[in-house]
Amino acid sequence: MSLLEVTGLGKSFGGNRAVDGITFSLDTGELLALIGPNGAGKSTTFNMVNGQLRADSGSIKLDGVELIGRKPRDIWHRGVGRTFQIAETFASLTVVENVQMALLSADSKLYSFFRRAADHKRDEALSLLDQVGMKVQADRPCSVLAYGDVKRVELAIAMANSPKLLLMDEPTAGMAPKERNELIVLTKQLVIDRGMAVLFTEHSMDVVFAYADRMIVLARGRLIAEGKPMEIRDHPKVQEVYFGSGKTFEKLKAQVA
Ligand code: ADP
Ligand code: MG
């Protein structure tokens, strides 16, 4: 049994079949990329797994337990994490305070005032920050951080409930190529160190082909290919549907670069 088993998953919006019966699985220790053109159904898939959207058909099992029909918070407690952008209200808090808040939330403790977080879980928060290379900046307000560093803190926050599976929908959006690579390298390290699984979407094909253990490709809600990066790269259906007819991967790369 895989950690995550998605079977025949479907979702329509009106007459639009956004996700059309997709089946895939994900094991612990894997970094799985979900790629596909805009509108392919990637975010819809993510939102069904995390419980934000209810599937019309199929099954989503985590450790054999059906997730469809469960509330997002329940799914989160069961070990499905996701990255969130640090809200504006929290930007004035320090880096370590933001992680402490997340740790409190993971414990379901009530917190009425931000300052209460200051006394709790500082060591645990610092340890998480250490894992993302942000310990030295722990006492700086998030508002003054470089963009790539904010993303690292967001990753530490997502680690707070020790997810078995982490969902990252376009984690590197808006990042420069160097920062993008660094974030994915860091994510891959966390997958290895923490024995976690990650499902992510990413526009940079360089990043995906370099770091994903496996890839699945969606087009118009259908899963059209699955395999290791090298297999996907040479897959005729992917070349045709995803990269556009007549375009080779190398041409596409040149176009994107
Ligand atoms: P991707 O993330 O791959 O770009 P999405 O999952 O966001 O694709 O969208 C898949 C399809 O579903 C698109 O046709 C999109 O317009 C449609 N869609 C997504 N979310 C909604 C929604 N909340 N209401 C109506 N249509 C939606
Ligand atoms: Mg999307």
Category by helix and strand content = alpha/beta
From the N-terminal CA to the C-terminal CA, the straight-line distance is: 40 Å
CATH superfamily of the largest domain: P-loop containing nucleotide triphosphate hydrolases
Number of helices: 11
Uncertain runs with pLDDT below 50, 5 residues or more?
none
CATH topology (fold) name of the largest domain: Rossmann fold
Using the alpha-carbon principal axes, give the shape: globular
Strand and helix map with partners:
Blueprint: E1 4-13, E2 16-26, E3 31-35, H1 42-49, E4 57-62, E5 65-66, H2 72-77, E6 80-82, H3 95-106, H4 114-117, H5 122-131, H6 147-158, E7 165-168, H7 177-194, E8 197-200, H8 205-211, E9 214-219, E10 222-227, H9 229-233, H10 236-242, H11 249-256
Parallel strand pairs: 3-8, 3-9, 6-7, 7-8
Antiparallel strand pairs: 1-2, 1-4, 4-5, 9-10
Helix pairs in contact: 3-5, 3-6, 5-6, 6-7
Bound molecules: adenosine-5'-diphosphate (ADP) and magnesium ion.
